[in-house]
Amino acid sequence: MQDIISISQNKCKQCYSCVRNCPAKAVQIESGQAKIVHSRCINCGKCIKSCPQEAKIVIDSKGKTLSILRENDTVIACIAPSFIVSFHEYNYKKIVGALKEVGFSEVWEVAVGAEYIVEAISQYIKNKENNLFLSSPCPAFISLIEKHYPEMIKYLLPFVSPMIATGKIIRKLHKNKNIKIVFIGPCVAKKCEALEPQFDGIIDSVLTFDELKDIFAIKGINIENAQEMDFDSIYCNEGKLFPLSGGLLGNLKSLYNLKESEYVVIDNDKDCVELINAIKAGKFKGKFVDVLMCRGCIDGPKIDSSLNYYERINKIYEYIKNSAKKAKKRNIKLELDFIRYYRNKRSILPYPTESEIQRILNMTNKFTKEDELNCGACGYSTCRDKAIAVFQGIAEVDMCLPYLISKKTKLVEQLSETLKETENLKDELEAVIESSYDGLVVTDGEGRILKTNSAWRKMVGYETKKEESVKDIESKNIIFPSATLLVLKEKRRISFIQHSHNGKEYLATATPIFDSNSSIKRVVTNIRDIDELNRLRDQIEETRKLQKYYKETKSRTYNKEYHNENIVANSIEFGEVLSLASSVAKVDSTVLILGESGVGKEIVANFIHNLSTRKDKPFIKINCGAIPDNLIESELFGYETGAFTGAKKKGKPGLIELAHEGTLFLDEIGEIPLNLQVKLLRVIQERKIMRIGGIREKYVDVRIIAATNRDLYDMVQKGEFRADLYYRLNVVPIEIPPLRKRKTDILPLCYHFLEIFNSKYRCNKRLSKSVERILEDYNWPGNVRELENLIERVVVTTPSDVIDIKDLPMFLLNTNDYCKKVDIEGILPLKEAVELVEKKLIEKAYRKYKSTYEMAKVLGVNQSTVVRKIQKYIKSNALEHD
């Protein structure tokens, strides 16, 4: 069945008026936008009338109707009596004439069907004196019963609506003709009623009054100029009261003697629900209820009339009076079945427990009854109703206006605090720039000077003026050439020697800062005095000698203090890791060790275990990423006899069970499957496990240490890792910095591994100074594990006792651009400098490669050039190298 009402998302503005006015709670809010829940919608049109943005869209039947008119010879319009309210400016005969001009063969009043239905109902209730009856002409009320209160179906009168009755009468009278019938009225729910399977083939299309007006406009029909014509339908009069509240009852009272205490008229949705609740509770004593979801068809959602409610009532009575004068009564007996059936269409939403309601209330800062303001801004009568709707998935937490205002207030406070922090950061940045030992100058993307620090002004001996640019300074030879201008031209970082008007030289480095469009928005240039740099270099060399002694002494101190000879800790960063690890070792708190692959997470886990009270108990390591998914559960939790095919006869304890009273180290915890995370969470929370195939739980006393090189928090956000397990594991996080961030650990580790492999392979290798520098400069993406493997490699492959640069693998030299680095210690002619570099490259390639062809390939020149260079720098007969 087609969806009758939909919503234009670009018009919906989160006013929640449709939520507030929908009697069936058939509006769902998702990401702030309203959506119709069609399984609950009764098509009453309340959301249409109440929507200030006119965002509700009713399915359009104009195209279908015009197509029917084009393709069929006999198309009959049956129009609801309330049409006179929508077209109140015209005589009713003009409307009939205009419909004929559109192309309708006949025009019928739906009041005809209404009168036949009244007669059928009158006979029916006479035979059932003690029953309660609910009237059935209103399709919205029928949907309310079928979808939300199916237990009330037994009280519904089993008769079709006047629209369906009229359709059946027309088809009976035209039984030998191929006809099409179009209903015209103010009710949206009629579009849905016509599509009911039991009414198939009766009504072919349903137009609302506003759609009919559009068709008149499309056809260019002016109602005022239309010919006056009368209806083609059977005589009717009393049925024209049906558009009014109590119209059915008014007709019945003339046929059946109902006492005043036996009937009730209801014409709004709130009273409909109240009636149903009263009937369910056994507190309603009446016999007949004439029920409408609105104040009659004259107040329908698509009545499209400028008259007020009472003017509309008067218009109906005026129409009845005028149309009755010239009407001729036709006594036609029709053998027709006006009986219909009803179905249970209820779609049940889940209902929360009291604790779940309270949890949702707490999310909007409602912790007591006094916090529940019940303001109704969200569209729900009470905060509890809204909490239930949130649980059912048809509302959102952020619909609560007081909560949003509170949230906004806090956000303003936070922004104010952030603004203060920004100001403080600005002041701190100013202080940092001013305290820098280097001279600093900051410009915009056009080269205008924004900031210089006192060190720059002191070095250069110049005070910049407002709006001055680096181009101005360069033109005055204050400091030249301009590093900023070169960066703006090249769009990359540049370093070179600058000269000053005071005769000094500076090492200048200019760095561009790009915006999101890859345009330079700032250039930061720092300068250093060359003479000062040379002096510092000499001091650094002396400091390195002292530092080496300090490293070795400190490393021995750590090893002695922590009683763990596998740990080499020289850096402050790793020392802080060990300090935290030693503190947490004294308690049983869960520890999450974070760090890249190869940084030594297992070493730290062992360290914690060895310092703990559990040091004499098992230390069980589980690599969650190394065990296949189909085996990991049995490995972790064990299994009982016959638990699965291939299981050992006596069963097997799991690794968690084996770690009882000791430490369980869960390495690569991020790789554990989601389905096992729940069971692992239970182990952490309750210290209980159950083997696969088991029926009894076992208590396990384990200290949990987990480790991962993945970002678990990011995995939680993506739904790849359970949030509750993450927070249980992340009690004490210990992050091990990568080796590149603790450079002072590199050489101690090198000598540690060198000692191990010298002993293992019975040799006495040592590192040259140049190798030490290269190893310290390397980035070590594989961390300590990569360093260990490299040391073993050079120990076993180096023929001499001293490991030199030539013994290192090429990737170390390439990564650090070692081969490309040139130390400049003095000034010499440019030609000599080029030849010096060229000679070094040829000599290095000559030692490394076996033939001149290989050398030529690596150096990017042809083989004859290589031969010529060898003859120039090394020996006369270069061909001997091949």
Give the SSE layout.
Layout: E1 5-7, H1 17-21, E2 27-30, E3 33-36, H2 46-50, E4 56-58, H3 62-71, E5 74-79, H4 83-86, H5 92-102, E6 106-109, H6 111-126, E7 133-134, H7 139-148, H8 162-173, E8 179-185, H9 189-193, E9 205-208, H10 209-219, H11 247-255, E10 263-266, H12 269-280, E11 288-291, H13 309-325, H14 354-363, H15 383-392, H16 401-435, E12 439-444, E13 449-452, H17 454-460, H18 470-475, E14 479-480, H19 483-490, E15 494-500, E16 505-514, E17 520-529, H20 530-562, H21 572-584, E18 591-594, H22 601-611, E19 619-623, H23 629-637, E20 638-639, E21 652-653, H24 655-658, E22 663-667, H25 674-686, E23 688-689, E24 698-699, E25 703-708, H26 712-717, H27 723-729, E26 732-735, H28 746-761, E27 766-767, H29 769-777, H30 783-797, E28 802-803, H31 810-815, H32 830-848, H33 852-859, H34 863-873
Parallel strand pairs: 5-6, 5-8, 7-11, 8-9, 10-11, 18-25, 18-26, 19-22, 22-25, 27-28
Antiparallel strand pairs: 1-4, 2-3, 12-13, 12-17, 14-15, 15-16, 16-17, 20-21, 23-24
